[in-house]
Write a structure and sequence with these properties.
The structure holds three protein chains of three kinds. By secondary structure, chain A is α/β, with parallel strands linked by helices. Chain A has helices spanning 25-36, 54-69, 81-89, 93-96, 98-105, and strands at residues 2-8, 11-17, 41-45, 73-77. By secondary structure, chain B is of the alpha+beta class. In chain B, 48% of the residues lie in helices and 20% in strands. Chain B is built from 25 helices and 21 strands. Chain B starts with a helix and ends with a helix. By secondary structure, chain C is an alpha/beta fold. In chain C, helix 1 crosses helix 5. In chain C, 39% of the residues are buried. Classes of the chains: A alpha/beta, B alpha+beta, C alpha/beta. Chains in contact: A-B, A-C, B-C. Chain B: InterPro entries: Bact_Chemotaxis_CheA, CheA-like_dim, CheW-lke_dom, HATPase_dom, His_kinase_dom, Sig_transdc_His_kin_Hpt_dom.
């Protein structure tokens, strides 16, 4: 359970094996925030996210914003249905997954 | 029947009543723009509302009427008697249409046909159904909304929302049960830099375009649990705003409500927002006592609850309504019993103040007398204000007779015009209530027997149309009401015959015509046959007289054969408290209503040519009867009798008389207490009052005394 | 994923009606008959929402909610309280304790489902 994190050539690969909710947000932030300064890119695999709420989405937005400030790449991959659902509801695909959005558009 | 239909019916009824009032008022004051506008508005609004409800037959009928009224309004067509008559029929027809369509759901063919005939007369054109269909279509085009309306919902969550178990996403999902979330903007610009970011705090805001038929209240209810953790604004944007504007146009103008209530009424804001705004207004007022209080509308705009335009429109409308009926806008309804209690208490206050004053004078407490005078002055003002509260204009009472005149003239095929003057003259409501019956009787009497048939009038060289005038004015503390007709006048010979027949006058008695006319107020003279065909209620003029007497008023009749009859009623303005003039005769104190006192002179036998036998005085060339109060009221002699006497000259209308008294005490406020049953048969006394000393003084029935004096003079 | 709701009420019939409605709507339900029983059933598994009566023997709803909010695992769990019209003054107390929503008894199951959906849909 929790986050599986591995670093490869300046990229942090994060595999979320848990929910991303108000219950987990503080802990996940605690683990991820220090990471941002150490890497050039963050790649989060969201395929195993079991549940997501506003706090989870807000966490992703905060990570994205912090990465942008550090001129890091921030990539979300393989969103689980519950994540996909939320991205659509909140019109956040273009914000959080711009690359994929461009692909599907093209 | 649903609430909305009920609202439509009620609104239509009100508007149609306004229309009738306006038409009748225009007979008095042709060309009154406000009234013409009111006519137009009535049809315009009913048409608009009927369109929304899909009551096409109502739209079809009211549309051409509206067009005609628009022409009248712009001066393109004159509002003559014929048109006024037609419009009255249109009003009745519209009422019938509304009744049928809201009741049965469809209109009977005969009623529809009536409508076409009416419109033909009105417009001079054959009303092809095409025109009507056109009108109906216009109504539909005006009203048809394009799909369900768009709402703009703005949510700004508080930092603690997430910690409190409020998940914004959940509410947005739930919104999908009520309609479509068409678009959404998630605001995350409040997210702090990564060091300051607290993942358990909420930094999110949402703008949601929501497509739904739900009411604002229903949408608001979605967020009920989030209220403490979120700033919520639900704004109807451009499209829905038009609809709101239309609805606002359709609310009657005289709905002078507070801005907030009006916005609430059209559904532009919810109760919750209104309360919030009012609360904010109060808070601001307390916080910045110096600064001007922001109007509710301003606060609502600041909170983005309603758009600027909408508020301006509402304010504008409110302003107009205010201008139109500024006095109505500030009216409150008060139980008249409460007013009665207030006036009684003020009466007690007057008495107890008089007691204080008396005690201060007796004890020679000089330094207090100024205070007492000041408080006496205040009490006087309170008294006047309290009595003023119960004052109503007599115009409403007069107006009731419009329909009576209309109906009677139609039934009897007479042509009669009612002329009302002095409708704004005020008098105590308790008096108004008691005057209505006698007035009705007198009016019907004039209509039935005063004014002749048109042919008869023409033969007499008078215009075919008779005139009945109702007039009111104030005269020295009294209200004078006149009912005048230009009819045939009273038949003195016939009245005299009746009076002789019942032994009221002796055959050899010499009476002027005017004296004979007064006889019709005598009991028994207002003869049976006359009473029964008078008004069909079997009430004679003696009953009218008794009613007026009970109000301490007097009634007078004057008539000119062939020219008409005038009945004049003098009534006191109030039955509660009066300014009195206190006199005494052989030690007993009496109050004369100050308004009836003309002057006081010393009783000098030579100067006034007092004729002790025939009981009259000649006061500077004016001969009038007098009576001695002491004698008339049979007050026993006491020792310090007869030194100097004074003569108090009283007047009611054109009746004058002098009362001989011993002492003049001066003015005082007099609270009228009704007489107990023991005194009810007492001649010359109309009531009692309590003096500051606690003594009771009797209030003189000036009217009765003048009559007695006049009778005495004639007997000798 | 099915969400889990804990229903705390000393009336078995109310618990049942609520439970049937919630299960019918696809939620998992944990039932508890009073505050103490409810606390005992907080095993660390995730509970998305708590529905609790106010007046109950052993431990009333307000005390229970206070305890619940002290528990780090459940401090964010939203709470719907069941109140009666007469118990309105209890609302402020419940709010202070951490309850977010109210459903006034007597209620129909759809009302309850509505309230639930608003909070955890």
């Amino acid at each position: 359970m929790g986050l599986e994190i591995r670093q490869e050539q300046g990229t942090a690969f994060v595999d979320v094996q848990d929910e991303m909710t108000i219950y987990t947000a503080a802990l996940q932030w605690e683990q991820l925030q220090p990471l941002l300064a150490q890497v050039k890119a963050v790649d989060m695999n969201l395929s195993a996210v079991s549940e997501m709420d506003s706090a989870g989405i807000q966490l992703l937005l905060a990570l994205k914003q912090a990465s942008d400030r550090l001129h890091n790449r921030f990539v979300l991959t393989a969103p689980a249905p519950c994540v996909e659902d939320l991205l659509q509801l909140l019109r956040l695909r273009s914000v959080l997954m711009p690359a994929e959005e461009a692909e599907t558009d093209g | 029947m649903d609430d909305l239909t009920q609202t439509f019916i009620q609104e239509s009824e009100e508007l149609l009543t306004q229309m009738e009032d306006a038409l009748l008022a225009l007979e008095d004051e042709p060309g009154d723009e406000e009234q013409i506008n009111s006519l137009f508005r009535a049809m315009h609004t009913i048409k608009g509302a009927a369109g929304i409800f899909g009551f096409d037959p109502v739209v079809d009928f009211t549309h051409p009427v509206e067009t005609v009224l628009d022409q009248v309004r712009s001066g393109g067509r004159a509002l003559d008697d014929e048109l006024a008559g037609l419009l009255l029929q249109c009003k009745d027809h519209t009422a019938a249409l509304v009744e049928q369509i809201t009741g049965v759901g469809e209109i009977e063919a005969t009623l529809l046909a009536d409508g076409y005939t009416l419109l033909e007369q009105l417009t001079g054109q054959v009303q092809a159904p095409a025109v009507a269909a056109d009108a109906a279509q216009e109504g539909v085009v005006e009203q048809e909304p394009v799909g369900p309306p768009h709402w703009l919902i703005t949510l700004k969550f508080h930092p603690d929302a997430l910690r409190n178990g409020i998940d914004p996403v959940s509410f947005i999902r739930y919104l999908g049960n009520l309609g479509d979330v068409v678009d959404l903007i998630l605001h995350h610009d409040q997210l702090p830099g990564s060091d300051a970011f607290d993942p358990e705090s909420c930094y999110l805001g949402f703008d949601i375009i929501f497509h739904s038929d739900a009411s604002k209240q229903e949408i608001q209810a979605v967020f009920e649990f989030a209220e403490d953790d979120c700033d919520i604004r639900i704004l109807p944007p451009a499209e829905i705003e038009c609809a709101f504007e239309q609805m606002m146009d359709e609310l009657p103008d005289d709905h002078t409500q507070r801005l907030g209530e009006m916005l609430l009424a059209v559904g532009a804001i919810t109760e919750h927002e209104l309360t919030g705004s009012l609360q904010q207004q109060t808070e601001q007022a307390t916080a910045e006592a110096e600064a001007p209080v922001l109007p509710v509308g301003h606060i609502l705009v600041e909170q983005k609850a309603v758009s600027r335009e909408l508020v301006d429109k509402a304010l504008d409308k409110q302003q107009k309504a205010k201008q139109k009926a500024s006095h109505e806008a500030s009216l409150i309804r008060v139980d008249s019993a409460k007013l009665g209690r207030l006036i009684n208490l003020v009466g007690e206050l007057v008495i107890s103040n008089a007691a204080v004053k008396l005690r201060v004078e007796e004890q020679g407490l000089g330094e207090l007398s100024e205070l007492v005078a000041a408080s006496e002055h205040l009490v006087e003002e309170i008294r006047d204000n309290a009595l003023q509260l119960r004052m109503v204009q007599i115009g409403d009472t007069f107006s009731r007779f419009r329909r009576v005149v209309r109906d009677v003239s139609r039934d009897m095929e007479k042509e009669i015009e009612l002329v009302i003057t002095g409708g704004d003259t005020e008098l105590d409501k308790t008096v108004v209530e008691k005057i209505t019956d006698p007035l009705t009787h007198l009016v019907r009497n004039s209509l039935d027997h005063g004014i002749e048939m048109p042919q008869e009038r023409l033969r007499a060289g008078k215009p075919a149309k008779g005139t009945l005038s109702l007039n009111a004015y104030h005269d020295s503390g009294h209200i004078v009401i006149q009912i005048r007709d230009d009819g045939a006048g009273l038949d003195a010979t016939r009245i005299r015959a009746k009076a002789e027949a019942i032994g009221l006058v002796k055959p050899d008695q010499v009476l002027t015509d005017k004296e004979i006319y007064q006889l019709i107020f005598a009991p028994g003279l207002s003869t049976k046959d006359k009473a029964s065909n008078l008004s069909g209620r079997g009430v004679g003029m003696d009953v009218v007289r008794r009613n007026i007497d009970a109000l301490r008023g007097i009634i007078d009749i004057d008539s000119e054969p062939g020219t008409g009859t005038t009945v004049t009623i003098h009534l006191p303005l109030t039955l509660a408290i009066i300014d009195g003039f206190m006199v005494s005769a052989r030690g007993e104190r009496y109050i004369i209503p100050l308004s009836m006192v003309e002057e006081c002179v010393e009783m000098e036998a030579t100067a006034w040519q007092v004729d002790e036998d025939r009981r009259y005085v000649n006061l500077r060339g004016e001969v009038m009867p007098y009576l001695s109060l002491a004698e008339f009221l049979q007050i026993p002699h006491c020792h310090d009798d007869h030194r100097r006497e004074s003569l108090v000259i009283v007047r009611i209308g054109h009746h004058k008389a002098g009362f001989v008294v011993d002492t003049l005490h001066g003015e005082l406020q007099t609270v009228i207490k009704p007489l107990g049953r023991i005194f009810s048969g007492f001649r010359g006394i109309s009531g009692s009052t309590v003096l500051g000393s606690g003594e009771v003084a009797l209030i003189l029935d000036v009217q009765g005394l003048i009559q007695a004096a006049t009778a005495q003079m004639q007997l000798h | 994923m099915d969400k889990t709701i804990m229903v705390v009420d000393d009336s078995a019939s109310i618990r049942q009606v609520v439970a049937i409605a919630l299960k019918g709507a696809g939620y998992k339900v944990i039932e508890a008959c009073d505050g103490r029983d409810a606390l005992a059933k907080l095993t660390g598994d995730k509970i998305h929402l708590v529905i609790s009566d106010v007046n109950m023997p052993n431990m009333d709803g307000i005390t229970f909610v206070k305890e619940l909010k002290q528990n780090p695992r459940y401090k964010f769990t939203p709470v719907i309280m069941l109140t009666t019209e007469a118990g309105k003054d209890k609302m402020a107390e419940g709010k202070a304790a951490g309850a977010k929503a109210w459903v006034v008894k007597p209620f129909q199951p759809p009302q309850m489902l509505d309230a639930v959906a608003k909070l955890i849909m």
